[in-house]
Design goal:
The structure holds 2 protein chains of 2 kinds.
Chain A (H helix, E strand, L loop, with lengths): L1 E3 L2 E3 L3 E3 L7 H11 L3 E8 L19 E4 L7 H13 L5 E4 L12 H13 L3 E6 L3 H10 L5 E2 L13 H10 L5 E3 L5 H10 L3 E4 L1 H4 L4 H21 L18 H4 L1
Helix pairs in contact in A: 1-8, 2-3, 3-4, 4-5, 6-8
Chain B lengths: L1 E4 L2 E4 L6 H7 L8 E4 L2 E3 L14 E9 L2
Parallel strand pairs in B: 1-5
Antiparallel strand pairs in B: 1-2, 3-4, 3-5
Classes of the chains: A alpha/beta, B mainly beta.
Chain lengths: 256, 66
């Protein structure tokens, strides 16, 4: 069982709600994923097409909403979005993301830390999306975030965990849960994160854009479960040289 | 009178409220959060918030995101 702040989660796979072909596919895929927490974004109502509404598709009893601050380019914008999310009944959980560069969508560490500090003081439960920087993770932990969410690779790229060595250090040092977020493109990537000892992963694009999002959601759930089980079972050590798995004695008859 | 709603100039009745505007758009008030001249107003305040000439209103809501 995973605990973040005051909530416990059975599933260690968190879902996103973006990029799905339809609200129904999103609902079915989230169901298949077993996720208990899902991210949502805040945007202007489209005055020409106002009826599109995901709130009505998702059961708030079943899914904890994790509003994100996507689109924020600095701490002030992130704080503004956070307050709007809370005012709109999104609760006080928040995926803090501050991405000033639309080309890379890499998070700004300075603005993220500043925003985290302000939002924790305003009683938000802050889960910051960060580059895989172990020192930043510690600094965020010190200001009171509920978890840290280092990226595997840039958002939406499906490249897997390019930040492996750094994520390993974050996991080793963190006293708050570590959720690997962004860039996980295949269930094997999710399994790898969990094998390293990550507490959970967050997946959106890889599930939403799959030819069969419902089957892919299930595949990710199995990957997360397998990785977690392997982590708990204890992986064998990595060696630089071969070590035979068959006995070395009893071969005299071949080499006489 | 004219207001600016989500960046667009809109003609609304004098003294209109966000509640009326949200109803015209066919939305549920509980699913929309508003900013009136930069100040957040909650759904329970929509009926009592009178918009003035030139008011800047933002209507925001949750959408799919990662």
């Amino acid at each position: 069982m995973l605990t973040i702040a005051d909530r416990t989660f059975t599933s260690r796979l968190f879902g996103g709600t973006g990029k799905f072909a339809s609200a129904q596919v999103m609902k079915d895929a989230l169901e298949a994923s077993g996720s208990e927490m899902v991210t949502v974004a805040l945007r202007r109502v489209d005055l020409q097409n106002p009826e599109d509404d995901i709130m009505s598709m998702l059961n708030r009893e079943k899914y904890l909403f994790l509003p994100n601050t996507s689109g924020a380019r600095d701490a002030d914008e992130a704080v503004r979005l956070a307050r709007l999310a809370r005012a709109s009944g999104g609760g006080n959980w928040l995926k803090l993301e501050v991405t000033p560069d639309p080309r890379t969508l890499l998070p700004d560490p300075v603005e993220t830390l500043q925003a985290a500090e302000r939002l924790v003081k305003e009683d938000f439960i802050v889960l910051p999306y960060i580059n895989a920087d172990p020192i930043l993770a510690l600094r965020l932990q010190d200001v009171g975030v509920a978890a840290v969410m280092p990226l595997g690779s840039p958002i939406g790229t499906n490249q897997g965990i390019l930040t492996l060595a750094q994520v390993e250090i974050i996991i080793e040092q963190a006293r708050v849960p570590v959720v690997v977020d962004a860039g996980l493109g295949a269930p094997s990537h999710a399994a790898q994160a969990m094998e390293l000892g990550a507490d959970a992963v967050l997946v959106n694009t890889a599930i939403a854009v799959a030819a069969d999002p419902v089957a892919m959601a299930r595949a990710f759930a199995l990957g997360v479960e397998a990785g977690r089980m392997a982590y708990k079972a204890g992986l064998g050590r990595r060696l630089s040289r071969a070590e035979p798995s068959s006995p070395e004695i009893g071969l005299e008859f071949l080499h006489s | 009178m004219k207001i600016i709603c989500n960046g667009e100039e809109l003609e609304v009745a004098s003294g209109a409220t966000p509640a009326e505007l949200i109803a015209v758009l066919g939305l549920k008030a509980a699913n929309v959060v508003a900013e009136h001249n930069g100040r957040i107003i909650k759904p329970e305040e929509y009926e009592n918030c009178r918009l003035e000439e030139g008011a800047v209103l933002e209507l925001i809501r949750f959408v799919g995101g990662g």
